[in-house]
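Before surveying the methods themselves, it helps to consider a single example record, giving the amino acid sequence and backbone structure tokens:
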Amino acid sequence: MASAKARLRPGPCGGRHPVVCRADMSNDRGNALVVGEYSQTLRARCGRRVADAGPRRTGRGPLIEMVHSAFQEQFSVAYLQAICAVAGYVVYSPIPDLDKLDWTVCAPGVQGTLRSPRLDIQLKSQRREALGSRSDVRYELDRPTHDALAARNHHVPRILVLVLLPRDEDEWMHQTEAQLSLRRCAYWRCLAGEPPTPNATSVTVSIPRAQVLSVAALKAIMHRIADGEPI
């Protein structure tokens, strides 16, 4: 059995906290094992949340960034799954992901002229302040992801979904005996047919705020697909 030893890592409060990793593993694998324990240590002993996506906090190491990103992604997935559950749709993730595709939504049964229509989703998330009076949401995509979404010849239509969250994870969810509220909102856009971009590495896309991904909006998209209409 592999031995374990304690190591000290600096926390955001300025103190150094022990975490456990296997002594006989490489640093990369050891770091991967530490993520959960390190997060719990920081939460319990520092008395504050690990991750804040805003520019106000500096000096986060790669491990804290990993924890931050994992929690944010987990919340965005839960948001999408909740919408699909209420809509009565099946949602699943392709394994492995080799085609810039995160999730597929399926409407079982006959929905229109097609049976069991499907929709592919590239799911992104971002922590930010409220949008104020802006009429759109802007998000920077890497070039390969943009090109995959902009292609015209996909057999299954695909869209970009962006989940916006408050910066403070304590504000992500509010629960009472009467309701469960998830904050803040998801927006969608179909990029199929977008003109080629001259940008080499990334593309900033604009998503109209009117295109909120709600249960009603997702049902409308699936019905258009089932009737052979463009999204």
